[in-house]
């Protein structure tokens, strides 16, 4: 599965996490998640300034097939949401690891990010779900 960037961290609920140089993290949904859901038609993002808790719902993505919750990978404060997705939810399908990022947050505890899955562990998780 070449579409799993090695530089990112992942969650069991199919979010990707990119640590940024300023101490925040950028979060989106994985290629696998958007592929399963199909064409995205709606995105509801968390508000900047809101607090999120690890493994709790903080956003919603809706496709032609289903609506799905997006979970916070770690606890922290939302610092930015990708408002461009409101007008172009299909960006999640076209560029899930680039322009399709969903929100940025400042973790309460930066070391929590280290506990997330690496690309190899995430690929193993996806492979195990297919059986």
CATH class descriptor: Mainly Beta
Q: Categorize the overall geometry.
A: globular
CATH architecture: Beta Barrel
Count of DSSP E strands? 9
Helix content class: 10-25%
Query: N-to-C terminal Cα separation, in Å?
Result: 16 Å
What integer value in Å does the Rg equal? 14 Å
Total number of domains: 1
The name CATH uses for the topology is OB fold (Dihydrolipoamide Acetyltransferase, E2P)
Q: Strands across the major sheet, in which order?
A: 1-2-3-9-8-5
The biggest sheet, with number of strands, parallel, antiparallel or mixed sense and barrel status, is: 6 strands, antiparallel
User: With helices defined by DSSP (H or I, 4 residues minimum), what is the helix count?
Assistant: 4
Overall pLDDT level? 96
Write up what this structure looks like:
This protein is α+β, with helices and mostly antiparallel strands and 131 residues long. The chain has a single domain, classed as Beta Barrel (OB fold (Dihydrolipoamide Acetyltransferase, E2P)), CATH 2.40.50. Helices cover 20% and strands 32% of the residues. The chain has helices at residues 31-37, 84-87, 91-94, 119-129, and strands spanning 9-10, 15-19, 25-29, 40-44, 51-52, 57-63, 67-71, 76-81, 103-107. The strands form two sheets. A six-stranded antiparallel sheet has the order 1-2-3-9-8-5. Strands 4-6-7 form a three-stranded antiparallel sheet. A hairpin with a 3-residue loop joins β6 and β7 (67-71).
């Amino acid at each position: 599965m070449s579409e799993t960037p090695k530089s990112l961290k992942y969650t069991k609920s199919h979010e990707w996490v990119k640590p940024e140089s300023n101490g925040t993290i950028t979060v989106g949904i994985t290629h696998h998640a958007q592929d399963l859901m199909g064409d995205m038609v709606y995105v509801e993002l968390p508000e900047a300034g809101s607090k999120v808790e690890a493994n709790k719902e903080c956003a919603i993505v809706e496709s032609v097939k289903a609506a799905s919750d997006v979970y916070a990978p770690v606890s922290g404060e939302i610092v930015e949401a990708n408002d461009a997705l409101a007008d172009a939810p299909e960006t999640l399908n076209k560029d899930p690891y680039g322009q399709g990022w969903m929100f940025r947050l400042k973790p309460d505890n930066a070391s929590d990010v280290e506990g997330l899955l690496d690309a190899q562990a995430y690929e193993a998780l996806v492979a195990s779900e297919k059986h």
